[in-house]
Amino acid sequence: MTSDTHPALPEFEYVQPQTLNEASEFLSNHANEARPFLGGTDVFVRMRDGFLSPKYLVDVKNLSGMSLLTFDPQSGLTVGAAVNMNRIIASPEVQAHYPLLVKACRSVASYQLRTRATIIGNICNASPAGDVIGACLVLGGILHIHGINGSHEENLSAFFLGPGKTTLEPGDIVTAIHFPLPPQKCSGTYIKLGRNQLSDLSIVGVTAFGYKEPTCASGYRFRLALASVAPLPLMPTEVETHLAEHPISAEAIHEAARLASEACTPIDDVRGSARYRKEMVRNLSEKALTEVWKKLG
């Protein structure tokens, strides 16, 4: 038995449309054969390993608006689909107002890969292990999508249908993601558990975000997002409800972490068992929520 230690990409045709309308029309007309790409950090690996074999790769990164990174102090942050992660990390506006997004981007692989990788690509890949998806969820991300019938917006929380599956229809292209201005005096963190410190998918990823909210009985609202522990990126509402209704304390956070563990449905794979993942969700959720609470306190 022999193995190919240098697998090659399958043959494909490279398509470079000039407009969004042209790109959407081509993708719609070749729904089962064409795939859009931005940085290519995921699609080329999956093609090389035999998981994908599209006939056409449609390069959408140079289309109008794709490279825009804009911040408005009233409306918030808009990140074009082709904006790479290193550019997000280096942005003074993102550092000042969305440090959680910076931290999540820093957790992705290496500096070299982040010069190509995009958060929209990470989102559209729809992997339950996506490192930046948790931050985008708790920050209230809204996707801008262009299709054959025009443009529309969609809340990121309703975007995922399963591993590798989203609500995108043939011809749809995500052009940007918008984040509203975060609440004042908010705090967040991302804790990634992997087999090594760099370049590994998460065994468990925990994103915690909190801020003062006078309408809650506790005076605070917390959001938690979990990666690699369910078919979809998971935001356990039980955690948010519990911490909104009970005075924030070590005991309340401990119970919230237990609820997070109960909400997840991990699987056994080569990176960790389901039992291990559930235990680490409990431990890391308690650690992340405590870290955010201390910063807020």
Specify the number of helices.
11
Coarse structural class: alpha+beta
Main beta-sheet annotation? 5 strands, antiparallel
| Helical fraction | 25-40%
Shape: globular
CATH topology of the largest domain: Uridine Diphospho-n-acetylenolpyruvylglucosamine Reductase, domain 3
Q: From the 3D coordinates, which CATH architecture of the largest domain would you assign?
A: 2-Layer Sandwich
Whole-number tally of structural domains:
3
What quaternary form is this? single chain
Radius of gyration: 20 Å
Report how far the terminal alpha carbons are from each other.
Answer: 61 Å
Care to give the gist of this entry?
This protein has helices at residues 20-29, 43-48, 85-90, 92-97, 99-106, 111-114, 119-125, 133-138, 237-245, 250-263, 274-296; strands at 13-15, 34-37, 56-59, 69-72, 76-80, 142-147, 150-155, 160-162, 165-166, 173-179, 187-193, 204-212, 220-227. Helix content is 33%, strand content 23%.
List keywords for this structure.
13 strands; five-stranded antiparallel sheet; Uridine Diphospho-n-acetylenolpyruvylglucosamine Reductase, domain 3; Enolase-like, domain 1; alpha+beta; 11 helices; globular; single chain; 297 residues
Detailed description of the structure:
It is a single chain. The strands form four sheets. This protein has a five-stranded antiparallel β-sheet. It has a three-stranded parallel β-sheet with strand order 1-3-2, covered by helices on one side. A three-stranded antiparallel β-sheet has the order 11-12-13, sandwiched between helices. α9 runs antiparallel to α10. With 297 residues, the protein is α+β, with helices and mostly antiparallel strands. The chain folds into three domains: 43 residues; 111 residues, Uridine Diphospho-n-acetylenolpyruvylglucosamine Reductase, domain 3; 107 residues, 2-Layer Sandwich (Enolase-like, domain 1), CATH 3.30.390. β2, α2 and β3 form a beta-alpha-beta unit. The chain is 33% helix and 23% strand. The protein is globular. The protein contains eleven helices and 13 strands.
